[in-house]
Specification:
The complex is a heterotrimer.
Chain A (H helix, E strand, L loop, with lengths): L1 E2 L5 E6 L3 H12 L4 E4 L29 H13 L3 E3 L2 E9 L2 E8 L9 E10 L3 E3 L12 E3 H11 L7 E6 L2 H11 L6 E4 L10 H5 L2 H16 L3 E4 L1 E7 L6 E6 L12 E4 L2 E6 L1 E3 L2 H4 L5 E3 L5 E3 L12 E3 L9 H18 L7 H24 L15 E3 L4 E2 H9 L6 H8 L12 H8 L18 E2 H4 L11
Helix pairs in contact in A: 1-2, 1-8, 3-4, 4-6, 8-9, 10-11, 11-12
Chain B lengths: L8 E4 L3 H12 L4 E5 L14 E2 L8 H19 L11 E5 L2 H16 L5 E4 L3 H4 L9 E5 L3 E2 L2 H11 L4 E5 L3 E6 L5 E6 L2 E4 L2 E4 L5 H7 L7 E12 L7 E4 L1 H7 L6 E8 L4 E8 L10 H14 L7 E12 L6 E4 L6 E5 L5 H17 L16
Helix pairs in contact in B: 1-5, 1-9, 2-9
Chain C lengths: L4 H5 L7 E5 L2 E5 L5 H7 L6 E2 L6 E2 L12 E4 L2 E5 L10 E3 L1 E2 L9
Parallel strand pairs in C: 1-7, 3-8
Antiparallel strand pairs in C: 1-2, 3-4, 5-6, 5-7
Organism (chain A): Streptomyces morookaense
Protein name (chain A): FAD-dependent oxidoreductase
GO molecular function (chain A): oxidoreductase activity
């Protein structure tokens, strides 16, 4: 076990995306000793994902909005005392008074021999989100990729999954994905959105208070028009065709509950499908420590946060998507607010009262917009009608919708946890990240209380050899 | 289907023990209502490994219960679908050094005298049974009667196997017991109304003490926390249930501090299970790095090959612990009409069929298949 | 209008190198993940599932779904979307759990 120097740090920030960067920089500029941990080799998180330096990209901003905000943070990070530890995969956080222990695996995918434990007086969780998926027949076929995944592979690897890519699902991410794919040379024959695009219009005040969001949508809309991308709202891909890879998809119109309209299916030829239904906050490090959660407007679990971004567990803070999916500008504001608040708690820096007021106001306004957006893209219950009995719901363990229905109807499962026990759905490598929302929906009973978020005590798989030494006695400075 | 009013007995708890009580009661001709505040197998059953062990039990009343259960499990495995993953794989207990091996042999001698099949395995034959075992172990004992089952599926299919004689009421919490003015039991009050029956079986596992209090009686069931580690999917790398000799001492210990000796076993689904630590920590699910470290260290010491694979997850459960390590099975002399079937600690899956069989006999006025005096709920 | 992702961002990568996929030579550029190198070669699947034997490749692209597990230089269950390709890497299709040789 390696313990880093300068321990314990004042603050360990988990995640070097927009929220984590903003928090780390703000705290360090107020005098805190900060360590910034991220699984990736680079800062930026998923939003500011970028090609490796060896790609020598002259225009990385071509695939991004708000690149200047990132460039500014990156510069401040370089000028700060923040210790950035890339390639650190946090698998657990534990509290051993008076400090937190952040347990990390190292290397590209956490396979390096040497685990690391970092100690800190406060922790800021900025672990972002991953994509929500709703299964449908054929979604496990090679060539079907998550919308965010297509975007991520494009931004960092400069590659596309095909030449003719249908983009489908629900949520604002799809606009960005379709316009990036098209700009990078893919033909995007259709953008298929399950909600009605007019859904935001029901929240005019939130939209008016967040003009940059409306502007972004316009920019994407114009780009799509320019690339000849056809928008189909209130529709979904309900089948994928092909034996070993994607050859075509069937796009079907949906009613208001997302139930397919019989006979409305149209086949669209393509060699890839990028699909996703919004984002799910990544909060398992926090829930393992007992942090309180709430159910967001879109049905996902998010952390309950205080006015200054502290979770219900004292000394543990969170910013960005962990508190509810809200996008990059919200993440930047929350990260900075958390960084300032941690500094104040630990007695560092001057009082930043006016900045706090400003950030809180900005955050509250953007949170309201995020809630409106989330509500507009909440999956309708009719999506379950997309599933055939033999459709895989759990990709890892290959558990079909029929098996899940049997567990619920005949075997006494009333929640996702028992469905998992009885079918293995969610027991595989991804620990239910891909199928969890769908399984929870299939298991839910009318009137049953909202189930607690799934517990994943290991945020990533941990080598047994690492576990066998993880509780070695307290740190000695190297 | 019988209505709530037409039940002969109410079983509280849809875990393995409750399911077995319901199954055998239904088999004896009774109409059973099973009530659980959660799902089938949602409590300790869902957090168990499915150990059906005789190997870890001292000669005495618990071993007698385990031997009866082993026979009943063999019967059940024929009656229930293969999906319950019943595997009569046998257990292998190993010792690291010669004193440990001697103690193991002595323990096995006494078990044999009580009717257990136990075969001594000298050090040079251990690898015939388990090729991946670490070198240098002093010897072991093979127990062919040890077996394994997938507890949640076994519970669900057992509840189903009795057909419409068992009525399930899930997501419904028992909030009180109903008694007539003369003190006889009439049923239970739940979050959704009243359910009537002349008998109530407390199969609430780790929460059995709380349930007993609703009836005004004391049953000192306490939760004893355990963690289980689950590896990535593997081919068969461990053939038996394998554990080191220290496990028996941990089971028998009443200590509040952490006891850990790993029991290692493969599963038909692929992952290897490594369980289980034992500690008194209330109903706290917080990850204990110390518990996991000891499980992982124990497992990799016995099977070095496991050091090269990853743990995908860990889960925790609460064993229903009674201070003398024996379950409470049978009528409660202090509360006529109330029967208990809880407090099996870590052996509930294994002991469930015999427990259910005994409870059914008690309900129908039959002769119990063994002396249930040691399990008397009134003994505390 | 740009016709490739590399043209879009004006990439002028360091010299490419070779890795193999099931013995077939493919080109990777420095800093690229194994999954990206495979996609660039038109390869979308590099694993078969444990139960159904179905082909799988990268899905989430960010290390969350574990669908892209692959055997690299004999090591099974590496996430292709996270692991950077290195010159000479031998990438092989992973069948099932990837641990057949451990079976007894």
């Amino acid at each position: 076990m390696t313990d880093s120097a300068s321990e314990p740090y004042d603050l360990a920030v988990v995640g070097a995306g927009p929220a984590g960067l903003a928090g780390a920089v703000a705290a360090a500029e107020l005098g805190l000793g900060v360590v910034l941990l991220d699984a990736s080799a680079h800062t930026g998180g998923q939003f500011y994902r970028q090609p490796a330096p060896q790609a020598r990209a002259a225009r990385p901003e071509a695939l991004h909005h708000d690149w200047s905000a990132y460039a500014g943070l990156r510069r401040r990070l370089a000028e700060s005392s923040v210790r950035h530890l890339p390639g650190h995969h946090v698998w657990s956080i534990t509290h051993e008074a008076p400090a937190w222990s952040v347990h990390c695996l190292t290397g590209d995918d956490g396979s390096d021999e040497q685990p690391v434990r970092v100690r800190a007086r406060a922790v800021l969780l900025a672990t972002g989100a991953y994509e929500r998926h709703l299964p449908f027949p054929g979604w496990t076929l090679p060539g079907v990729v998550s919308a965010g995944g297509a975007q991520a592979m494009l931004k960092s690897g400069l590659v596309l999954p095909g030449r003719r890519i249908v983009v489908a699902g629900s949520g604002p991410l799809l606009l960005a994905v379709a316009s990036s794919l098209a700009a990078a040379g893919a033909r995007v024959p259709a953008l298929v959105e399950a909600s009605g695009y007019l859904a935001y219009a029901r929240h005019p005040r939130a939209l008016a208070a967040n003009p940059q969001k409306a502007a972004e949508a316009l920019v994407h809309g114009a780009a799509l028009l320019r690339h000849g991308v056809r928008l189909r709202s209130r529709s979904a891909v309900t089948a994928v065709h092909g034996t070993d890879r994607v050859e075509a998809v069937t796009v079907t119109r949906l009613d208001r509950t997302w139930r397919p309209v019989q006979g409305s299916g149209r086949r669209i030829a393509c060699d890839a499908l990028a699909v996703g239904h919004g984002l799910v906050p990544q909060i398992e490090l926090a829930t393992a420590l007992g942090c309180a959660t709430r159910t967001s407007a879109d049905g996902t679990s998010a952390l309950v946060l205080g006015p200054l971004q502290e979770t219900s567990v004292r000394g543990l803070w969170a910013a960005g998507e962990t508190g509810g999916v809200g996008g990059v500008r919200l993440a930047l504001a929350e990260g900075e607010l958390a960084g300032i608040a941690v500094a104040a708690r630990l007695g560092a820096g001057r009082a930043r009262g006016s900045r706090i007021v400003q950030l809180r106001r900005r955050r509250d306004r953007m949170r309201a917009f995020a809630d409106a957006m989330a509500a507009a893209h909440t999956p309708g219950p009719g999506w379950r009608c997309w599933l055939a009995d033999d459709t895989d719901v759990c990709r890892c363990e290959e558990v079909t919708a029929g098996r899940i229905r049997e567990a619920v109807d005949d075997l006494g499962a009333r929640d996702a946890r028992t469905v998992k026990l009885l079918t293995r759905a969610g027991m595989g490598w991804c620990q239910g990240r891909m199928c969890g929302p769908a399984v929870a929906c299939l298991a839910a009973r009318d009137g049953a209380p909202e189930p607690p978020p799934e517990r994943r005590p290991f945020a990533v798989p941990v080598p047994m050899s690492v576990l066998a030494q993880c509780a070695d006695q307290p740190n000695t400075a190297p | 289907m019988p209505t709530g009013k037409l039940s002969d007995v109410i079983v509280i708890g849809a875990g393995m023990v409750g399911a077995a009580c319901a199954y055998y009661a239904a088999g004896a001709g009774l109409r059973v209502t099973v009530i659980d505040r959660g799902s089938v197998a949602g409590g300790t059953t869902g957090a168990g490994e499915g150990n059906l062990l005789v190997s870890d039990k001292e000669p005495g009343p618990e071993l007698e219960l385990a031997r009866l259960s082993a026979r009943l499990w063999t019967e059940l495995s024929g009656a229930l679908p293969a999906r319950i993953e019943y595997e009569p794989k046998g257990g292998l207990i190993v010792a690291a050094d010669e004193p440990g091996a001697a103690a193991l042999r002595d323990f096995a001698d006494r078990q044999r005298a009580a009717g257990v099949t136990a075969e001594e395995i000298p050090a040079d034959r251990l690898h015939d049974l388990e090729p991946h075992l670490a070198p240098g172990l002093a010897g072991g004992v093979h127990y062919p009667q040890d077996a394994q089952v997938m507890p949640a599926l076994a519970t669900a299919h057992l509840l189903r196997a009795a057909g419409n004689r068992i009525r399930l009421r899930l997501g419904e919490e028992v909030t009180g017991l109903l008694t007539a003015p003369d003190g006889t039991l009439r049923g239970v009050r739940t979050t959704r109304g009243e359910v009537h029956a002349p008998y109530v079986v407390n199969a609430a596992g780790a929460w059995g003490g709380e349930l007993a209090r609703l009836a005004g009686v004391e049953l000192p069931v306490r939760p004893r926390r355990g963690f289980v580690l689950v590896t990535e999917p593997l081919p068969r790398v461990v053939r038996h249930k394998v554990y080191a000799a220290g496990y028996m001492a941990d089971v028998a210990s009443g200590s509040a501090t952490l006891q850990t000796s790993a029991v290692i076993e493969g599963t038909p689904a692929g992952p290897v299970l490594i369980g289980a630590s034992r500690e008194h920590a209330g109903f706290d699910r917080t990850l204990s790095p110390q518990a996991l470290q000891r499980l992982a260290a124990g497992a990799t010491a016995l099977f070095p090959v496991l050091g090269t694979v990853r743990a995908m997850r860990t889960y925790t459960g609460f064993r229903p612990y009674l201070p003398d390590h024996l379950p409470a099975i049978g009528p409660d002399p202090r509360a006529p009409g109330l029967l208990h079937a809880c407090g099996h600690e870590g052996a509930g899956i294994g002991l469930a069929p015999a427990t259910g069989f005994v409870i059914a006999r008690c309900l129908t006025g039959g002769e119990p298949p063994l002396d249930i005096g040691p399990f008397d709920p009134g003994r505390f | 209008m740009a016709r490739t992702p590399a043209e879009l961002v004006g990439a002028q990568p360091d010299p490419p190198f070779e890795i193999t996929f099931d013995g077939r030579r493919i080109t990777a550029v420095p800093g690229q993940s194994v999954a990206a190198a495979l996609w660039a070669a038109g390869i979308l699947s590099w694993r078969t599932t444990r139960t159904g034997g179905r082909p799988r490749g990268a899905f989430c692209g960010i290390g969350q779904c574990f669908d892209c597990l692959v055997t690299i230089n004999g090591d099974p269950n590496r996430r292709a979307c996270l692991v950077a390709a290195r010159p000479g890497d031998a990438v092989t299709t992973q069948e099932g759990h990837g641990h057949d040789r451990l079976g007894v």
